[in-house]
Amino acid sequence: MRLTRYFLPVLKETPAEAQIVSHRLMLRAGMIRQQAAGIYSWLPLGYKVLRRIEQIVHEEQMRTGHIPMLMPTIQPADLWRESGRYDAYGPEMLRIRDRHDRDMLFGPTNEEMITDIFRTHVNSYKDLPLTLYHIQWKFRDEVRPRFGVMRGREFLMKDGYNFDLTKEDALHAYNRHLVSYLRTYERMGLQAIPMRADSGPIGGDDTHEFLVLADTGESEVFYDSAVTDIRLGERQIDYDSVDQCRAVMEEFTALYARTDETHDQQAFDKIPEDRRRSARGIEVGQIFYFGTKYSDPMGATVQGPNGKPVPVHMGSHGIGVSRLLGAIIEASHDDNGIIWPEGVTPFHCGIVNLKQGDAEADTACEQIYAALVAKGLEPLYDDRDERAGGKFATMDLIGLPWRITVGPRGLKNGVVELTSRRTGESEELAPELAVNRIAEIYQAP
Fold first, then answer.
1. Residue 219, CB-side half-sphere exposure with 13 Å CA sphere
2. Is 39 helix (H, G, I), strand (E, B) or coil?
3. Which CATH class is domain 349-442?
4. Residue 178's closest CA among 212, 199, 208, 158?
5. DSSP codes of every residue in 388-443
6. Are 337 and 345 within 8 A, CB to CB?
7. DSSP string, 124-135
8. What does 155-180 look like in DSSP terms, one character per residue?
9. How far apart are CA 258 and CA 285, in angstroms?
10. Which of 361, 345, 445 minimizes the C-alpha distance to 1?
11. Tens of pLDDT, residues 152-208
12. Tens place of pLDDT per residue across the chain (445 aa)
């Protein structure tokens, strides 16, 4: 993409309403525009990152054998009355009526609807286990929407639901989700710590939140610092293996890590003093096992091996897709702007032409651009007639991980400059070597 043909409405000044880093930088980088309190339009740059994050979530869900689908945003109230949650959920639910005066709602979550789909189409234990998920816009009428996409009213969420014959099978699904979420976050350049949490209106006794440590986090968390040293890395995971998923789950949850709602000071005091930590955290996902909480009242049963109806055991598993974008920025930025991890960057590389209109510089930039595209990469070429300082400031603000700088002086020596946004380190290379280096980083063909 050439910047002269792109829609990137960057701001030089920080809007007064932005209170935290991610909100400030998303507005300044032209990623979002507020349309109402807690409701945003996603402008092209923000939308590209959102889709990158969504794609990673899809890939990791399908890797585990989960099946994608899509449910509607508007739900009939009668389903929620069956489960008993219509009146219990609270004012965060946006309740509406259609033209026929029927009670409807803008879904904050989908346990009732997925249970209805299941009970309609699945009748035998032979069809289990089954996990269905979708990525869909939700609405929760927050009393104080703030911090940009971190606490909006409308948000993009992945929510998945497992159906199993026994509690043991459902707990394997729980562990499997925990492991797959760890992989998902690591691919985005994040370390999200699973912490024992409160189940809230979803219900159930077993639940973990995934939190990214950040000064601007809304939750107070308490943890053993050794937990931050654990990574999945390149481990090969067999998601069908009960023992392997349980072992990984136990490894990542054995050390103390709790949100403030479940914090146990006596247990915390048993940790060696030099490893006790309290901090702020940003919630980016949560998993639940709630047994037959929904299947019992809604009649979601299957014919068991003995021929008798058995209520299925269920769990739900959410990832805040749009919220993740803000969390990544909170965890990865500096005074100049965003620093995107390679896994979610909107463009793989920026190209800066230091002397637009110079025949040699223009030709070199076009050749580099074409070579990157030929390798399956998406570069952003700043071809504006703008001073060099302005171009560098824009690239730093929008946070592309790598920048190739092309100028007449370097070209006389047959080189361009390749710069890492994260470290600030630069290296002079022949143009074709710079292209190859970028392709190697992204493992492009």
1. 26
2. strand
3. alpha beta
4. 208
5. HHHHHHHHHHHT-SEEEEE-HHHHHTT-EEEEETTT--EEEE-HHHHHHHHHHHHT
6. no
7. BGGG-SEEEEEE
8. EEEEEEEEEESSHHHHHHHHHHHHHH
9. 14
10. 345
11. 999 999 999 999 999 999 999 999 999 999 999 999 999 999 998 876 655 556 889
12. 999 999 999 998 888 888 899 999 999 999 999 999 999 999 999 999 999 999 999 999 999 999 999 999 999 999 999 989 999 898 999 999 999 999 999 999 999 999 999 999 999 999 999 999 999 999 999 888 888 898 899 999 999 999 999 999 999 999 999 999 999 999 999 999 999 887 665 555 688 999 999 888 888 999 999 999 999 999 999 999 999 999 999 999 999 999 888 899 999 999 999 999 999 999 999 999 989 988 999 889 999 999 999 999 999 999 999 999 999 999 999 999 999 999 999 999 999 999 999 999 999 999 999 999 999 999 999 999 999 999 999 999 999 999 999 999 999 999 999 999 999 999 999 999 999 999 999 985 4
Among the four given CATH numbers 3.30.1490.190, 3.40.50.1820, 3.30.930.10, 3.30.1240.10, the one describing domain 3-338 = 3.30.930.10
Q: Tokens standing for 252?
A: 């990542």
Q: What is the C-alpha to C-alpha distance for residues 293 and 435, in angstroms, rounded to an integer?
A: 55
Cis peptide bond upstream of 129, omega within 30: yes
Pick the closest to residue 23 from 15, 395, 140 (CA basis).
15
Q: How far apart are CA 235 and CA 183, in angstroms?
A: 10
Beta-strand relationship, 39-42 and 206-213: unpaired
What would the two tokens of residue 438 be? 């970028």
On the 0-12 / 13-18 / 19+ scale of CB atoms within 10 A, 282 is buried
Three-class secondary structure of residue 9 per DSSP:
coil
Q: Range(s) for CATH 3.30.930.10 in the chain?
A: 3-338
- What is Dmax (Cα atoms) for the chain? 82
What does the block give as tokens for 66?
């989960």
- How many Å apart are CA 242 and CA 169, to the nearest integer? 9
**Helices assigned H by DSSP within 289-423:** 295-298, 321-331, 359-374, 388-398, 408-412
The pair of structure tokens assigned to 29 is 């980088």
For residues 119 and 301, is the Cβ–Cβ distance under 8 A?
yes
The Cα-based distances of 19 to 23, 49, 53, 332, 430 in angstroms read 7, 22, 24, 17, 43
